Amino acid sequence: MSYSYSKASSHSIKNQEKYFLDANIWLKVLAPKNKLSYKDKGYLAFFEKLVNNTKVRIILPALVVSEVINRIIREVHYQKHLKAVKKKTPNIDFPSDYYKNVFRNTDDYRIAYNLICDDIKSFNSSIDLVNDEFGTTFKFKHVMSNPPTSLDFNDYYYYNLCKKKSYFLVTDDKDFWVKDVKVVTMSDTLLNKHIATLIPKSIIK
Q1: Among 7, 22, 86, 93, which one is most buried in terms of CB atoms within 10 A?
Q2: Rounded distance between C-alpha atoms, residue 75 and residue 73, angstroms
Q3: Which is higher by pLDDT, 136 or 93?
């Protein structure tokens, strides 16, 4: 297999297929913006098709759960907390360790954490929790040697996991340009790059 990319809004889902959702997709599902973009609507509609098909599985390892929970708490609930505190105490100066030493001990944090976990668990019937297999299937040489410069550690690990297990990878990361994995996306950057690979070189010349 070389490059394989399909548009989420037109991707055909078949029974028995398994889909690995990148953290950026879970963020769109669990913490959608007030005003949805064309891409956001495409991903949400695609996610709805996944959960409505009882013969399709959504793959979820702990690394994704950790990334999703931490980002939603920091980017959504922590910001709400700061605004609320600032409203009550306009002149407050938040120290650099406020998140760790103060916010994490508040009811706001506990409520946010439980809310996100409950939201994820609400899709339990469609989700397969999987072991990341670090140390067994994947050794140092697989994920800590010569990674693509466009991918961070988590993304490179996700790529290797999807490649090994033949999972579809659903992502909105425009840097996720990889071979040997079927990628589902709404990213124009990725889709256009894929289209370019399908044009015969003789035509390009």
Answers
A1: 22
A2: 6
A3: 93
